[in-house]
Amino acid sequence: MTIETSIAEQPPTTTTQRAAVAQLQRRPNARQLAIAVVCLGSTIAAPFLVSNFLIFQMTMVLVYTIAILGLNILTGINGQLSLGHGAFYAAGAYTAAILMDRWGIGYFWTLPAAALVCFVVGFLFGLPALRLEGVYLALATFALAVVTPQLFKLSPFENWTAGVTGITLAKPDAPFGLPLDQDQWLYLFTLAMTIAAYVCAHNLIARRGGRALMAIRDNPIAAQSMGVNTALYKSLAFGISALYTGVAGALGAIVLQFVAPDSFTFSLSIALLVGLVVGGVGWLPGALFGGAFVLFVPNLAESVSKGLSGAVYGLVLITLMYVMPSGVGGLLRATRAFASKRYD
Amino acid sequence: MQNRRFFLKRGIAGLLLSASLALSSPGHAAGKYDPGASDAEIKIGNTNPYSGPASAYSTIAKTFDAYFNKLNEEGGINGRKIKFISYDDGYSPPKSVEQVRKLVESDEVLLVFQPLGTANNIAIRKYMNGKKVPQLFVSSGAATFGDPKQFPWTMGWQPSYESEGIVYARWILEHLPNAKIGVLYQNDDFGKDVLKGLKIGLGDKTSTIVAALPYETSQPTVDSEVIKLKASGADAFINVATPKFAAQAIKKAYEIGWTPTQILSNVSDVVNDVLKPAGLEASTGILSTAYLKDSGDPQWADDPGMKDFYAFMDKYYPAGDKSSKSNAYAYTVAQTLVHVLKQCGDDLTRANVMKQAASMQQVTMPLFLSGMTMTTSETDYYPIKQLQMKKFDGTRWVHFGKVISSEDLQDTHKP
């Protein structure tokens, strides 16, 4: 551990590494600050300007954003491919639902509980997954995603999970007598959680832990020979990633007021992965674009053609991948590079 | 002059008034409306799985759409056209919540009609009741959708799985009082509800069930369950399985030479999908229940109700399968909605829609078997509570006996 610490704290060597770290660690300039303030202001003001239905949709976008952030830490930062994050999302959702429904615990306290449960589950799943790489890991996580909804249907757990019929939850009111309706409050609550999740993720990858995770992604042998405990870090990445996705699941359960095994089919895992790729693998803000894609594009596809919605969805996805092969993040980078080349 | 001017003023005002009255009320009196209804139209919302694992059911919503087109061409309901808005939920409960909120808050429908799926309907139920928007005639046989005390805005339609079990129990008590019953059931809400109904119907004779074996839909076969049921000594076999497993069970029972009285859940009573694959010889003599005429059965070819249905399908939904049970079901439940909306008259408020839906008196529909009726009340949210027994004669189902009701035994207090 001491060797690893000293190595990881040494200044990054190659120029690209240095550039990447510099980008993560530099202080924001005035323009970036202004953009951030405008974005934050408009997201906070949004629930007072639009209809409750749109607020609800935006809340779900934020929920998916947190889940995709988690997947990004595992896949984008650490390079481990997961097709099974729907399982962690489900675990978080059920943790929240069972705590609220069976033990009457306040919705806020279900989030740390879901985080803990999913961290442990993810960490433990990460241990055997260490032996698996690439497509083999994808297959193992795929199995996890397929098995999970079945598990929640099993009769031995039925006292807790209520089987296929699922658990209905009460919708939380705004606390302290704030003059907000339930949808507005849930939106602001989820927004706060999303910002907290983003800041944590950003800080995590900007520091030595994050560098170690990226080193494992880029060259596991080199990372190991530099003294990074790859087994520990890979398992931790799994745990933290599952934690994020689990918190998202818990928030999703609170927002939708309902959990059932059929809410967490394999297609959810795929949707999260699609969101990750569309937003940009390894680029944290991309999660927001990914979340929006997961929620809005199926609706868009349906409005084009009800019978062929799946085909339209596929077409949109293929087009996006051709136009911006590295997601929204890649597109923004390319635009910036193009602009700076022109004006320099 | 004074008088004349006064007269002119009055006269013009009167003319304007009568003109405006004439313009605003073409044929019917102004009504009482909630969002989604007006003099011109009634907006009806729906969610259905157009994509995903249950997309075969989307033919139900397509039949609705076709039926409302027909209705609008014929002049609508009391002069109002139906605007049918149906969204895809992919059979996913979170998507159902989103789509139903869109229907209620953005499209402002008067009511949500026939959302499909047990979990999907439970997912939206609290919301619908909180918003006081009718969740009318849900497309699920779960007995939980008939609980007016807790959920006065949610009503089922088809006979619940529980009432099916009750009807089987009643028939067995009457005709096979000494039967030893073996049950194969799917381990989910459907199988468990039928088993529960069976036990309710048997009352103090529940001990005549000598074996009740569950199976999971993930199992490849139900062979071992059937062998165990035979070994239990049962001489009445109740097969509460979905089509694939039902066919396996019938075939296996025949192969191992087990010849009990067989009752097949009406979920799987399809000749082409279940009885033919299981073997027509193996299937001969099987009993089941029905409430609708089977549109795939030639015995109804000259039935006036069935002729209308075929004509409707030919003209408005030619791509649909006329022999499909789902389409006949959709046609009939759409007619039930039209009946309720007609009863509402010009009071198209959400409360009145529920009130009219809960005051059906012996209403019958063209595709109902004779003797079948729908009756509801403020405390009874199960429109169809009766079923008629039928027997497979080797080529088709033959209906027999009187209509059996489960009415007095339905338990409305569900978790």
Topology of helices and strands:
The complex is a heterodimer of chains A (344) and B (415).
Chain A lengths: L1 H8 L5 H11 L4 H16 L6 H26 L7 H19 L3 H23 L4 H20 L4 H4 L5 E2 L13 H25 L1 H11 L1 H6 L4 H27 L1 E2 L6 H14 L6 H19 L4 H15 L3 H17 L1
Antiparallel strand pairs in A: 1-2
Helix pairs in contact in A: 4-9, 4-12, 4-13, 4-14, 5-6, 5-7, 5-12, 6-12, 9-10, 9-12, 10-12, 13-14, 14-15
Chain B lengths: L1 H23 L7 E2 L7 E8 L9 H16 L7 E8 L4 H14 L4 E3 L4 H14 L3 E2 L24 H15 L5 E6 L2 H14 L6 E7 L7 H9 L4 E5 L2 H13 L5 E4 L6 H8 L1 H4 L3 E4 L13 H13 L8 H20 L2 E2 L1 H8 L28 E7 L4 E3 L4 E2 L10
Parallel strand pairs in B: 1-11, 2-3, 2-4, 4-5, 6-7, 6-8, 8-9
Antiparallel strand pairs in B: 10-12, 12-13, 12-14
Task: Describe the protein.
With 344 residues, chain A is mostly helical. Chain A is built from 16 helices and two strands. Chain A has helices at residues 2-9, 15-25, 30-45, 52-77, 85-103, 107-129, 134-153, 158-161, 182-206, 208-218, 220-225, 230-256, 266-279, 286-304, 309-323, 327-343; strands at 167-168, 258-259. In chain A, helix 10 crosses helix 12. Mean pLDDT of chain A is 86; it is low at 1-12. With 415 residues, chain B is α/β, with parallel strands linked by helices. Chain B contains 13 helices and 14 strands. Chain B has helices at residues 2-24, 58-73, 93-106, 118-131, 161-175, 189-202, 223-231, 243-255, 271-278, 280-283, 304-316, 325-344, 350-357, and strands at residues 32-33, 41-48, 81-88, 111-113, 135-136, 181-186, 209-215, 236-240, 261-264, 287-290, 347-348, 386-392, 397-399, 404-405. Chain B has a four-stranded parallel sheet with strand order 3-2-4-5, sandwiched between helices. Chain B has a four-stranded parallel sheet with strand order 7-6-8-9, sandwiched between helices. In chain B, strands 10, 12, 13 and 14 form a four-stranded antiparallel sheet that branches. In chain B, helix 3 (93-106) packs parallel to helix 4 (118-131), helix 7 (223-231) crosses helix 8 and helix 12 crosses helix 13. In chain B, 48% of the residues are buried. Chain A binds chain B through residues 51-53, 56-57, 60, 150, 153, 155, 163-166, 168, 171, 252, 256-258, 260-263, 265, 267, 295, 298, 302, 306-307, 309-310, and chain B through 50-53, 86-88, 90-95, 97-98, 101-102, 105-106, 117-119, 122-123, 125-127, 142, 144, 187-189, 214, 216, 218.
